[in-house]
Fold:
Amino acid sequence: MSSSNNNLKNLDLEKIPSAKNLRFGIVVSKWNSKITTNLLNGCLELLYNKGVNKDDIDILHVPGSFELIYGCKTLQNKNYDSVIAIGSVIRGETKHFDFICNATSNGIKDLNLLDKCPVIFCVLTDDNIQQSIDRSGGKYGNKGTEAAIAAIEMALI
Ligand code: DLZ
Structure:
């Protein structure tokens, strides 16, 4: 995750392999949509930069992070090289945060155990909105960009 110790300030695009002719499915949660839209933009920018054709990217919107699992499972069956799950969960006053974070991370982990394409976990799990802003194009970079790099690397395995 983008953080003070690990962020994209020194990103060397030359070191990232070309993604020309690879196909990506992206599932985006509508909950906290300003954050998830910024993550998506960071992700798309990197993929285009590495040569991915617009026609080789499909984007599916789901209501919340909990629904990312079903969305990713659906796209895993559609012949992509990698699928990317984009969400933003922000801690509230109830335990809902923990249930959603645990279910979403476990669900996506399970999808990676299937004999299908990799699913990249680009879900911010923050204590407050400022932390989310910092990691979606703010002072710690954009986790969407990191997810795109991971998706390319995993697609090439
Ligand atoms: C219900 C809920 C809450 C409280 N918070 C978030 C959140 O911070 N981020 C997010 O992506 N989704 C949230 N949701 C919605 C759930 O993910 C899910 O869409 C609903 O529980 C319906 O299944």
Observations:
- The helical segments are 33-49, 68-76, 96-111, 129-134, 143-155.
- The first strand starts at residue 24 and ends at 29.
- The chain has one domain: 21-155.
